Amino acid sequence: MELEMLPYKNVDLKTKKILEQLTISSRALAELKGYANTIPNMHILINAVTINEAKDSSAIENIVTTHDDIYKILTESGYKEENAKEVVDYRNAIWSGFELIKKTGYINTNTIIKIQGIIEHNNAGIRKLPGTELKNSLTGETIYTPPQSEQEIRKYLKNLEDFINNNTDNIDPLIKVCLIHYQFESIHPFYDGNGRTGRILNILYLVLNELIDSPILYLSKYINENKQEYYRLFNEVRNNNNFEDWILYILKGIEITSKETIKLIENIQNEMRSYKDEFKMKLPKIYSKELLESLFYEVYTKISYIEKACKVTRLTASSYLTQLEKIRAFRI
Ligand SMILES: Nc1ncnc2c1ncn2[C@@H]1O[C@H](COP(=O)(O)OP(=O)(O)OP(=O)(O)O)[C@@H](O)[C@H]1O
Ligand SMILES: [Mg+2]
Predict the structure, then answer these.
(1) How far apart are CA 297 and CA 41, in angstroms?
(2) What's the pTM value of the predicted model, to 2 decimals?
(3) 3-class secondary structure, 329
């Protein structure tokens, strides 16, 4: 059956179950939004969250790496580990997308193409050759054939773009994100990277609609943990028009992930507080808020971060680091 354009007809978006879960998920997300603003330096939180997201999202695509390798890629020039590099590219794509929508105030086909280009580090863009089919990975049988010609794909993307930027359709943005994700994956506009691009698109949409201020809510861990269900529900929608279960699945993911992210913020804050106390007590001469924050900016720190954050010379930064190492081995 041909993919329907948005907004879908004959879909009840206001069933009792959906409305109940919508209330719960909206509340959890609103709590996260408020709580996120209590972290003194937003970059700390975004960096911590996006590195995990990049790792989890890439793992769905079987790009598996370790935190250690990721930090090495970030801090040691010349360090090579392909999977970790992919993860870092994914994180760069999140940042670029975030900056782009902050600047333009909308998401369009070009935004999506740009994000995918960074993830895949090529500029192949939208599929031009026919032949893409979604297959069952076990049996090899074709489950679904997305639109084939570039012209058709662009038509669907334009329709998606209009749906994304339409604020007067009276559909709750959280419900819209569920539909956007289904539609985007079904258009499957690229040869590869559709899953990862789609997952970034979700968060950008939430930011655009001010449901969250910065890109810190990601469903990849949840999807990874409930992957069979994720794939099964695509087919449920396609074969049985079962949007209810699909929407409930995504909304539940938003609820669970919001709560987990709140816990992560709590952990970061506790850790920062405990460092601060020890630091102030043992090294009062060099303590500063900037130095403390620079230690949390990335999970690893290095002289150049300290130089920049504290506006000191390399020599001074290096001496700070040596003194800090003496009081505590940094193992955030
Ligand atoms: N039956 C389906 N209908 C529509 N979309 C689907 C279906 N099954 C899977 N998908 C989507 O296709 C994505 C995989 O596509 P692709 O390989 O292009 O993306 P990726 O980013 O490289 O991979 P991954 O999502 O595994 O990380 C899945 O993440 C899912 O979102
Ligand atoms: Mg792929």
Answers:
(1) 8
(2) 0.92
(3) coil
